[in-house]
Amino acid sequence: MNTLAEENYLKSIYHLSLNAENVSTNQLAAFINTKASSVTDMLKKLADKGLINYTPYQGVTLSKAGEKIAVNIIRKHRLWEYFLVEKLDFKWDEVHEMAEEMEHISSNELIDRLDKFMGYPKHDPHGDPIPDCNGLFKIHNLKPVSAIGVHEGGVICGVRDHSPAFLQYLEKQSLIIGKKITVKEINEFDRSVILQTAGKELQISREVANNLLIAL
Amino acid sequence: MNTLAEENYLKSIYHLSLNAENVSTNQLAAFINTKASSVTDMLKKLADKGLINYTPYQGVTLSKAGEKIAVNIIRKHRLWEYFLVEKLDFKWDEVHEMAEEMEHISSNELIDRLDKFMGYPKHDPHGDPIPDCNGLFKIHNLKPVSAIGVHEGGVICGVRDHSPAFLQYLEKQSLIIGKKITVKEINEFDRSVILQTAGKELQISREVANNLLIAL
DNA sequence: AAATAAATTTAGACAAGTCTAAATTTATTA
DNA sequence: TAATAAATTTAGACTTGTCTAAATTTATTT
After folding, report:
1. What are the structural domains, with CATH classification, of chain B?
2. What local confidence, expressed as pLDDT, does residue A140 receive?
3. Residue B4 CB closer than 7 angstroms to strand C?
4. What are the angstrom distances between the C-alpha of B136 and each of A105, B9, B103, B142, B154?
5. pLDDT attached to residue B165
6. What residues does B183 pair with on adjacent strands?
7. Minimal Cα–Cα distance from B170 to chain A, Å?
8. Cβ of A21 < 7 Å from strand C?
9. Residue at minimal CA–C1' distance from D24?
10. Residue B163: left (phi > 0), alpha (psi -120 to 50), or beta?
11. How far apart are CA A206 and CA B6, in angstroms?
12. Taking 90 as the threshold, does the pLDDT of residue A21 lie above it?
């Protein structure tokens, strides 16, 4: 088995790999909230274990083995988030920190049974896909609201920013997963967006539009 | 907050305190599966934190603060065991190791909601009492089967030995929590006990009788 | 392409928790 | 009660994961 720190590094490399081919030492340091020198030490260790592909000064990618572990941690994280929201009635902005601890509970049998208990959910409370017990999941092809034009629209299916502050804001505006929205107007001045939702009209900033994901 | 190691020491001291006033360094070392010198180091640390009462060479007891933490960990352990058995269909001999990890999930809000979700159970799958959110619970007054005489009996309400091997044996013999039994005969030679249970007669060794707890 | 800046790694140190071996204290026994 | 045994603590070392400061490599700029 791997240590807590190792698991967190693998998970972080996985997340950062979605936006860049190679993940750099500094990127990782910023993401994990640690120093670059600490990252270098850990990268050596993970490379020795065969979990990453690491060339000094050139950044890292996950190996097949490393990716498998990372996806499994993400599966656990998202299933526990689903559990916390659907079974224990937590709000979607309250569960991240708890799931951050729970994702390291080691038993796979446990997580598979939890999956079954909840009816094999496909998405977590933030719309992120939950890998199945084989690590398979569809990366759904979502667009930020900021990427579509006037009179276009779709269904809210995810968020880019997972911070409690952003999630609380969305909830207050009823901009929740499953909601249908249409772009009514884009303000030329600040590129803020006026949305048409069920019954109501609503203005959101460019910042918000960038972080709100929809399926067309 | 306290580290994983600190929590495990406090929990262990609590458990050992049930059988002896002062817990000795060697007792702890054996229980935690570590060396006496490591125990001494940790005891100093816990004493500095005010969680135990420690006099060198004289063993330890928990302070009020330490006991509160220990009971909270035990509450978490037992609630997670209940969850694993009642919601995820694990058997009573399969859950200890998993709960050993889960008891360290820090959120109290989480455990209180889990408690509510399950309907505030009073006992874990092995019959041990679950402390409530204030740390209160009844230490029920159980006797081992070996302590009662012929024609006496009661209801199985707990076990002393929590090892999978023992629990599996009991399950195979249908000696499970809630079962009514009566002592029919005690073999003079090896002090093994013949039990009368619903319909069946059953012989158990002294060893088993010592570890099977009943309420009269 | 040389000089400077940015990114990364190396060297050496530290805290937590553990270990072995030696020293000390307490308990037992002759 | 002195000698021996058992229990406990101290001293010093090791591992993991972190840090700061210095050295090195890569990227950028003039």
Report:
1. 4-62 (1.10.10.10), 73-139 (1.10.10.10), 143-215 (2.30.30.90)
2. 81
3. yes
4. 27, 21, 17, 18, 26
5. 97
6. B195
7. 24
8. no
9. A57
10. beta
11. 48
12. no
